[in-house]
């Protein structure tokens, strides 16, 4: 372990378990959980070196505090006056010009966060939600029909898991058919830039900038068109939504569109893949769900989300000194929340290593730990999962997942590909 000097001037040693290395995030989720279990039990808030191979290495970056227990993750999430998002929410430091342009109000603090979220929330009206849910159900039916037509051995990710989120997003915002595949690729790039296999020798910063620019261009064109000719879609609602006399500027619409594209695409996509594999590995749970699908899918979806934990890390920056988990966090220090660890916390979850579709209560952290940044689209994600598994288990009751391959990285718990048979 290497000693580092904290803001107080005292020497501080990095933890023996290195959560910052590329090697750690290249292991399996089960192997990572063994490390998290040690930290939860012995050092629930621990000090770690800067992330390896950072996008933009900072010579002044001394490291971060890793928060691994559920109770401490909730404390950080809900104490928004101490733990700020405005300096970045990614595990790794992101250039300032990319922050708000790609993360919208996710990387903001009050009062700006409050104002922008109010305007965006005004676009998620009951009418919009009903329309979205109707299209989700129709899309899910079509997607499973297409998967069945693709035949045994088809890639479940390509033919199913990724399809419903991108079609839902397209219907929500009115993306033309011609742009859907390109947009799906761009959103993949925005969360896969740390994966060497995805980069294939390309510069990660250039990949980020290129794909973010493309998504901004799509959003800008849609916003301009909907101002002239409003339609029955989310972009039309966004450009016309007004709270206390304020409307979204074009840059705000584009930034929210990037956030929505990534959040809508990757989180539900990954949960669908992980849940399909889990239903294959736990046939007793699958049988239990099939016995009374309509009445049991609600708790099942919550367990799917806990099991998958599609977003693995988010960070905050301390505004003031704060005591957490037996450690003094100094003002200006970074704090990273490890959601997979919180969702496997044995003080909260009985046998978290088991898929338990009847688990209730299930206070998982799949949509965050509460507070100002709780996921705005949680209801849409739940609706998608209910719909896709309803169709999968109705049309293809014997479907099974093969061995998945994973995308390396410390942000999204991503499945690259996974064959299926039925």
What do you see in this structure?
The structure is a single chain. The protein has 17 helices and 13 strands. With 422 residues, it is of the alpha+beta class. A hairpin with a 5-residue loop joins strand 1 (3-5) and strand 2 (11-13). Helix 13 (250-281) packs across helix 15 and helix 15 crosses helix 17 (378-395). The chain is globular. The termini are far apart.
Largest sheet: 5 strands, mixed
Task: Enumerate the spans where pLDDT stays under 50 for 5 or more consecutive residues.
Answer: 5-9
How far apart are the first and last residues' alpha carbons, in Å?
50 Å
Order of helices and strands, N to C?
Answer: EEHHEEHEHHHHHHHHHHHHEEEEHHEEEE
How many helices does DSSP assign? 17
The geometry reads as: globular
Q: Count all strands and give the number.
A: 13
Mean pLDDT: 88
* Order of strands across the main sheet: 3-4-9-6-5
Class based on secondary structure composition and strand pairing: alpha+beta
* Share of helix, binned: 40-55%
The Rg value, from CA coordinates, equals 21 Å
Strand content: 5-15%
Short structural summary:
The chain is α+β, with helices and mostly antiparallel strands. Helices cover 51% and strands 10% of the residues.
Which descriptors would you attach to this protein?
single chain, 422 residues, alpha+beta, two-stranded antiparallel ribbon
List the helices and strands and how they pair.
Elements: E1 3-5, E2 11-13, H1 22-25, H2 29-42, E3 45-48, E4 64-67, H3 70-78, E5 83-84, H4 96-103, H5 112-121, H6 126-150, H7 156-161, H8 163-173, H9 180-192, H10 196-199, H11 204-228, H12 234-240, H13 250-281, H14 283-291, H15 293-308, E6 313-318, E7 322-324, E8 327-329, E9 334-338, H16 339-342, H17 378-395, E10 400-401, E11 405-406, E12 415-417, E13 420-421
Parallel strand pairs: 4-9
Antiparallel strand pairs: 1-2, 3-4, 5-6, 6-9, 7-8, 10-13, 11-12
Helix pairs in contact: 4-13, 6-8, 6-17, 8-13, 9-11, 9-13, 11-12, 11-13, 13-14, 13-15, 13-17, 14-15, 15-17
């Amino acid at each position: 372990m290497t000693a580092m000097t904290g803001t107080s001037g005292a020497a501080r040693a990095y933890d023996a378990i290195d959560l910052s290395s590329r090697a750690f995030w290249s292991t399996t989720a089960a192997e990572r959980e063994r490390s998290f279990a040690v930290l939860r039990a012995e050092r629930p808030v621990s000090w770690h070196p800067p992330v390896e191979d950072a996008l933009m290495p900072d010579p002044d970056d001394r490291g971060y505090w890793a928060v691994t227990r559920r109770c401490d993750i909730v404390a950080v999430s809900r104490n928004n006056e101490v733990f700020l998002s405005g300096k970045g929410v990614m595990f790794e430091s992101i250039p300032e010009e990319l922050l708000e342009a790609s993360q919208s109000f996710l990387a903001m603090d009050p009062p700006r966060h409050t104002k922008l979220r109010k305007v965006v929330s005004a676009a998620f009206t009951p009418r919009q939600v009903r329309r979205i849910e109707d299209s989700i159900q129709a899309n899910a039916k079509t997607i499973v029909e297409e998967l069945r037509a693709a035949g045994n051995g088809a890639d479940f990710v390509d033919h199913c898991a990724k399809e419903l989120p991108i079609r839902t997003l397209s219907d929500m915002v009115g993306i033309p058919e011609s742009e859907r595949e390109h947009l799906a690729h761009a959103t993949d790039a925005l969360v896969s830039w740390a994966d060497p296999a995805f980069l294939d020798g390309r510069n990660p910063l250039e990949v980020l900038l290129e794909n973010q620019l493309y998504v901004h261009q799509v959003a800008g064109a849609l916003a301009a068109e909907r101002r002239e000719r409003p339609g029955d879609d989310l972009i039309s609602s966004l450009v016309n939504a007004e709270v206390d006399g304020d409307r979204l500027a074009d840059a705000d619409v584009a930034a929210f569109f990037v956030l929505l594209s990534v959040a809508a695409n990757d989180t539900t996509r990954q949960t669908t893949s992980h849940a399909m594999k889990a239903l294959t590995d736990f046939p007793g749970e699958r049988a239990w769900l099939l016995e009374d699908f309509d009445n049991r899918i609600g708790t099942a979806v919550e367990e799917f989300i806990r099991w998958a934990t599609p977003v693995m890390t988010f960070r905050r920056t301390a505004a003031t000194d704060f005591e957490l988990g037996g450690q003094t966090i100094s003002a200006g220090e970074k704090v990273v929340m490890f959601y997979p660890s919180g969702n496997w916390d044995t003080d909260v979850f009985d046998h978290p290593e088991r898929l338990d579709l009847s688990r209730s209560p299930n206070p998982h952290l799949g949509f965050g730990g509460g507070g100002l940044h709780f996921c705005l689209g949680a209801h849409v994600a739940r609706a998608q999962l209910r719909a896709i598994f309803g169709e999968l288990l109705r049309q293809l009751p014997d479907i099974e997942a093969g061995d998945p391959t994973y995308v390396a990285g410390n942000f999204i718990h991503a499945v690259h590909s996974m064959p299926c048979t039925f």
